[in-house]
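FAQ: What does the model actually see?

It sees only this:
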Amino acid sequence: MYKLLLSWRYLRTRYIALASIISVTLGVGTLIVVNSVMAGFSHEMHIRLHGILSDIIFESHSQSGMADPEQTITEIRKVVGDELQGITAAVHVPAMININYRGQMMPRQVNLIGIDEATYAEVSDFRQYLLHPENRQKISFLLHENGYGDDEHAIPPSGWLYRRLRAHYEREHELQQRMLKNAVGEGEGEAPAEPSAEPPETAAVPTDPFSQARPHAPENVFNPEKDQYTGIILGIAMGSVRQRDAHGKVRDVYLCRPGDDVQVAFASASMPPKIMSENFTVVDFYESKMSEYDSGFAFIPLKAMQNSRQMGDAVTTIQLKLKPGADLNAIRDKLQAHFPAEEFPFRIQTWRDMQGPLLAAVQMETTLLNILLFMIIAVAGFGILATFFMIVVEKTKDIGILKALGAPSRGVMSIFLSYGFSLGVVGSGVGMIGGLLFVYFINDIAKLVELATGQEVFDPTVYYFSKIPTIVEPLTVASVVAGSVLIAVLASVLPALRAARLHPVEALRYE
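And it is asked to produce this:
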């Protein structure tokens, strides 16, 4: 009993112990906050990476792709068996997209992907990242009437409503320019005639409200008010730029929107390759919140891609979705054994293999942060060590009296070990509670910091999320607390051994 009473007295009366407790508290709280935020970021990154990429990817080394994808898919089904949930074929090619923004052509490098609308949603979460609600239900490359904007994305009017209106004004502008040139050609100084409400070429009553005062195009001529090119889905960062206006408010400037036409250039599958250039109509945006994808991927129908590249039914990639719980690495190894690289020009990888450098970098960053932050607790441990040595020196006579009264060396040693354990438990407990509270209110704290400093904690022009993601992992919290208590106990071992080895007579003579 005397051991607990002395430990509690030292803890209560020694204010220097408070500094050690604060050090442990700060170290534990910081570790919990950092690990929770890093876990949140990693989780969001994994979801978005895996959402676009399927579980296992077959990539062809050949420019012309796999000549007989159906046969390959049949072989894959036999190897994978019941663990296969979905499979699709696609074509990936590098391309250059030109966006007409206010009369200026803006080129963008893009990875153009031809997908099968019926099966691509079975192997990835691509569909849920599309903006139009109908496309989230079923992928379509047809332009919708409207309904592209929402509370998060203030997209200007888009879809067929916007396309018809724009085509109408472009045709009116072209008609006025033509009439102006004719008037200038007839004689200088004569005022150009106003465009007629119904030009002679105009047919009967038009079927849409925007077709007034313009000639009808022949049936076999592309009419942008009624026709669209092959649909293309762009990453939102490719069709828009997030920046601040003059008042400092963050807003998106859209270079194009659903209903606009873009020009895409890519290489054909023939040898030697030829540059193919085609027009496409933007039918939707997708936003995965991964800048690498949102600014570099564009999707078109698979058949349109194959026809444009003159590659028949060939594909460049086959993507597999496995059932939950399947061992990706084991199935990858089985497929690699069935399709050896010496015989088949394929590269077979899991989605983690493809993103290995990025995932490894995040893991390394988390590990280094944990090591650096544990040094804070180690510093607190050295503070406990110094404090205990001071107590041993100051209480030498008290220790001598205890040993003279019959206290064993083990009992004297346990006093200081209990003291160190108490410091670790109190500091770790307070740090754990404080860290968890900080994580719970981290977004509110971020707002307070922004109000106090006038600067945003996370710049929304860089980070495409509205809240700081956090995940509290109980095992990590328990490990941090246990490690902190262990450091505090280890720091008290040397002073406890010195106190236990004191001879009663020498301790009583100590001045």
